Amino acid sequence: MRPPVARRAAGAYTTSVKRVAFDMLGSMARPRITLQPHLTSGQLRERYRRAIDAKEARRWHALWLLSQGHSVQETAHTVGLCPAWVRRVGQRYNAQGPQTVPDGHRRKPGGRPPRLTEAQQRQLSTVLEKAPAEGGFWSGTKVAAWIAKHTGQKTYAQLGCVYLRRLGWTLQVPRRRHARAATPAQQHAFKKSSGAR
User: Fold this and answer.
1) What is the pLDDT of residue 171?
2) Selection from 102, 101, 83 nearest residue 92 by Cα
3) What is the pLDDT of residue 27?
4) Are 48 and 64 in contact (CB under 8 A)?
5) How many Cβ atoms sit within 10 Å of the Cβ of residue 143?
6) Average pLDDT over residues 110-129
7) Is the C-alpha dihedral spanning 148, 154, 159, 161 positive or negative?
8) What is the chain's mean pLDDT, rounded?
9) Long-range contact list for 116-119, CB < 8 A, 24+ apart?
């Protein structure tokens, strides 16, 4: 008599079959990357071990594993990157050499340049020390109007608040006061008559 066999749920079997088929297709779909001999496998390992930046270390690790003959899928799984990114790192290394491995954002950060130059920021800082021409306190709207006047670019109040904080200022808003609040003399009289508790 045969021992009872544990049965899988219908969905589990098809999912595992699909996963195996995907893994097989994923590893067979593209050939292994052969690295150009810019650096030896030992030099790649040494750069991986010496890298301080985590992103750079991960790229050197991927290149070192690829140089040892590991597939893109295995390397991606080991290093924690997606296979497309490992392939891109390998292709960039082959085309342009080891200088492309460090993070490019450190050399040339992206994003827009600041709206105000250093000189304009110093000028704004000195202007903020005086009361605004319209009276009251400096606000994001008033700083944005100043920036728009000096740069010629439309500026929203949010950017005015950003520059206020960047220059070390905080928004100052007077405390709200009830319309029928007691005068200081009335408050003093109330405190005297209420007695100590």
Assistant:
1) 66
2) 101
3) 47
4) yes
5) 25
6) 90
7) positive
8) 83
9) 116/147, 116/150, 116/151, 116/163
Structure tokens at 141: 């709207």
Q: Where are the beta strands (DSSP E) in the chain?
A: none
Q: How far apart are the first and last CA of the chain?
A: 92
Provide CB contacts within 8 A for 60, sequence distance 6+: 44, 47, 48, 51, 101
CA dist 179 → 173, 175, 187 (Å): 17, 13, 15
Distance, in Å, from the CA atom of 102 to the CA atom of 5, rounded to the nearest integer, reads 54
Distance CA 125, CA 146 (A): 12
Q: How far apart are CA 125 and CA 127, in angstroms?
A: 5
Q: pTM for this structure?
A: 0.46
In angstroms, rounded to a whole number, what is the distance separating the alpha carbons of residues 61 and 68? Answer: 11
Within 10 A of 76 (CB to CB), how many other CB atoms are there?
20
Per-residue pLDDT at 183: 87
Over 90: is that where the pLDDT of 32 sits? no
Q: Each residue of 138-191: pLDDT tens digit? A: 889 999 999 999 999 999 999 999 999 999 987 667 778 887 888 888 888 888
d(CA 104, CA 96): 13
pLDDT for 108-119, tens place per residue?
A: 777 778 899 999
- What is d(CA 6, CA 163) in angstroms, rounded to the nearest whole number? 67
How far, in Å, CA of 8 to CA of 110, rounded? 51
